[in-house]
Amino acid sequence: PVLVVDFGAQYAQLIARRVREARVYSEIVPSSMSAAEMLARDPAAIILSGGPSSVYEPGAPQVDPKIFDADVPVFGICYGFQAMAAALGGEVAHTGAREYGGTPVVVAADPGVLLRGLPAEFNVWMSHGDAVATAPAGFTVTASSSAPVVAFEDLATRRAGVQFHPEVAHTEHGQTMLQRFLYDIAGIEPAWTPSNIIDDQVAVIREKVGDRQVICGLSGGVDSAVAAALVHKAVGDQLTCVFVDHGLLRAGEAEQVENDYVAATGIRLKVVNAQDRFLSALAGVTDPETKRKIIGREFIRVFEAAAREVDTERHVEFLVQGTLYPDVVESGGGDGAANIKSHHNVGGLPDDLRFALVEPLRTLFKDEVRQLGLELGLPPEMVWRHPFPGPGLAIRIIGEVTADRLDLLREADLIAREELTAAGLDRDVWQFPVVLLADVRSVGVQGDGRTYGHPVVLRPVSSEDAMTADWSRLPYDLVGRISTRITNEVREVNRVVLDVTSKPPGTIEWE
Ligand code: XMP
Question: Which residues are listed as membrane-spanning (predicted)?
Answer without folding.
Answer: none
